[in-house]
Amino acid sequence: MLNMAEGLARLGALAENPVVRTLALAFADAGFDLAVVGGPVRDALLGRATHDLDFTTNARPDDILRVVKPISSTQWDIGREFGTIGARVQGEQVEITTYRADAYDGVTRKPVVEFGDAIDGDLVRRDFTVNSMALLVPQVRLVDPTGGVEDLVQGVLRTPTDPQISFGDDPLRMLRAARFSAQLGFGIEDRTLDAIGELRETLRIVSPERIQAELVRLLQADDPVRGIRVLVDTGLIEEFLPEVSALRLEVDEHHHHKDVYEHSLTALDQAIALERSRHPGEPADAILRLAVLLHDIGKPRTRKLEPGGSVTFHHHDVVGSRLARKRLQALRFDKETTEAVAKLIELHLRFFGYSEGAWTDSAVRRYVRDAGDQLERLHILTRADVTTRNRRKATRLATAYDDIEARIIALREQEEIDAIRPELDGNDVQRILGIAPGREVGEAYRFLLELRLDEGLIGPEAAERRLLDWWAARV
């Protein structure tokens, strides 16, 4: 709950921030207004950490540049046509934008930029009331023309103008509603929520890159499940990630099975808890969270009702991996993220064979080899995937995974299994067998790798003998 007295005190502290004060005095001396705007004001009132500093002013871009040059180490004007000048002041990056009164054409997200002369007009054009507040400095006066403080108190997201107009102007704001709901733990006002459902198809004018960026920010929020529910309930997710809403499989009275959608959200919550406990203080892991959210998206494609009422999802791991790769590529995710998520989904069932019977050391080595640099994420995903209410079963699976992690640690100490490779390299193979580079060297190398995985370290001499035996049998 917002405590106004404490919030106002934090606004005063924000105004005294050395970077804010330096800029405020410089603009005042030049005869211009300056205000901290948007997220920093909202977060100061809520007592949340303030990161990037954004400012708005009645100065035009050329004037902004003239004012900041003497007090900054670097300036950039890549956003000049939109009224934005960037600068580095006392080591901190800031952006300062001329008051705007934009108009949109309804076809693209690019506004027809019009500079304004009044701060109230600038604030009304922003996305949500809680982001439409400004702190005038150095005089420390809060400007709140749209009732942002009241909405902060109530914990609600609402557009400053008619949501049909606001989202029509910029459809990305609908995704931002879900993201801010996840970040702040706020509900969304009914009219605003209804407009998302009605206008969801307008998201198609937004570039995949911008959608991807908002999705990542949502997943890195404190409570991404809250935001995902907004996306699914409004149907907005159908426009860019329909595989998630498809998880809401129909449950009929004769073929009972777990609700895959709810299971996936529970798994995501559990993965986040594990992530925080195993890696306290580290940034939110978007790759892990994306993989957990998508780990079962192959189930709708592979769902089969068996005689007797059981439901199977054979090979949903492989199918889901393929679907995820295709979807992430469409959203312009980088190759590293795409391949990591696809690998995690493909491997997420591998452990459950271990829980039904102890693996050999060879099987454990292969598990580590196949997971590669995704092993820690696979640990978390696999543990989080256990959402059964059967306490006995959950305990058995947790104990089994404790055991496999302990065995991996022990094998690491003995064999350096994180970098499993044959004890003889390609040059050794050519020398020992007297062959030139080519297909046969690759076959020999694969034999040696399988030998290493099956039997561990046996020593170079023994490896050479086994290689010669293999070669002789092959010929």
Automatic annotation (TrEMBL):
Keywords: ATP-binding, Magnesium, Metal-binding, Nucleotide-binding, Nucleotidyltransferase, RNA repair, RNA-binding, Transferase, tRNA processing. GO terms for molecular function: CCA tRNA nucleotidyltransferase activity. Its cofactor is Mg(2+). Residues 256-399 form the HD/PDEase domain. InterPro entries: HD/PDEase_dom (IPR003607), HD_domain (IPR006674), HDIG_dom (IPR006675), NT_sf (IPR043519), PolA_pol_head_dom (IPR002646), PolyA_RNA-bd (IPR032828), tRNA_adenylyltransferase (IPR014065), tRNA_CCA-adding_enzyme (IPR050124). It comes from the Bacteria. It is an enzyme of class 2 (transferase). PANTHER family: MULTIFUNCTIONAL CCA PROTEIN. This is CCA tRNA nucleotidyltransferase.
